[in-house]
């Protein structure tokens, strides 16, 4: 049995969820409709989240899994008690914007929504669990999309400012760790899901996406400013869908292509962590003929209010090739990638690369020298209960073990600064990319099926006790 070096004292072990993928109760206690609600499971889902097909309300013949999700809204006490039993030090969750401001542009918040999250945070603290709160995890009130065009409209900065001011004021002393936007770079790949943007055929998609991104970046800097003013102990982070791009060959063209792909991902974090637009981005805007409207005040905000830490999701690395011939693409991910022959893949075609996590940690550390927080990592798989209803998910344990070892090496051998780790979908929830329940990530099985049937009963998997041991030993025993 291998015993590994300890993780840093106070390391924040835990798990992660998102409001739209677990809460359900989409129309309860005054909550308004959001973009994440009207995305169905099925073949049209991808074209809707990527802004190619318009769906602004529920339509006949579709199933919308976010309506009920796993009913965390009514079962949060049971779920948090299970997280506490595992020994969680932190729980990453998100705010449903339309629970607080049902339309998004009201002057006064919805008290029932505010009270719900206050109850959840207090329940966490009862067990010594530190909430890690994503302010916007793909949520955008549908009213803001229909009447303002989503994040393409600068007015959303004002509405977001009102939201965060309410949150930081109400939850002062209850929440210390905040993330402004989940996977902010997803706006380039899934603009409707990421920013409530539907792009009309005649429109310049790049102009709209990068202008919208600028609005989100300014809103993020403004949130960071307000968070520090209201409670100086607040720590605000950005959040990136990470994973290094490898060149398919040592052909310099492939190496250059991989550098460009990495830059496209890091562009957002370059602004949020360094405080200004990098030269390569300015040149790209020129080359594409984009005119990104930004004020002098915007640039000052970005410069003076950079994030305290960099958080990211990591599921797999990616490969890029400049040779269209003889390259097989992976399936099942919003990010297209050339298949890596040296790696195994999950049932959904995501390539499993623990060393890639160590590489990514080092790349981000070298680039920013800011504390890092891995806020999503996990294996989506089909779990089959045995005759007793128990799930032996050794494949999930193997995946997480290898990634935790890679984290340990990055900290103890490479010297990166990592403050915490929350596995994705610590309890089974609706998959963002596909809308499926069958793509399970959790330590806790939820009796809920793709067709919306099931009892919502929670059951511990084998990985539950394994992760409990990992946390109890602060990462020294991952066997």
UniProtKB/TrEMBL annotation:
- Which Pfam families did the record assign? Glyco_hydro_1
- Domain of life of the source: Bacteria
State if Lipoprotein is listed as a keyword: no
InterPro entries membership? GH, GH_1_N_CS, Glyco_hydro_1, Glyco_hydro_1_AS
Q: Which residues form the active site?
A: 376 (nucleophile)
Keywords, A to Z, come to:
Glycosidase, Hydrolase
Q: Which family does it belong to?
A: Belongs to the glycosyl hydrolase 1 family.
Provide the protein name.
6-phospho-beta-glucosidase
Tell me the classification of the organism that encodes this protein: Bacteria, Bacillati, Bacillota, Bacilli, Lactobacillales
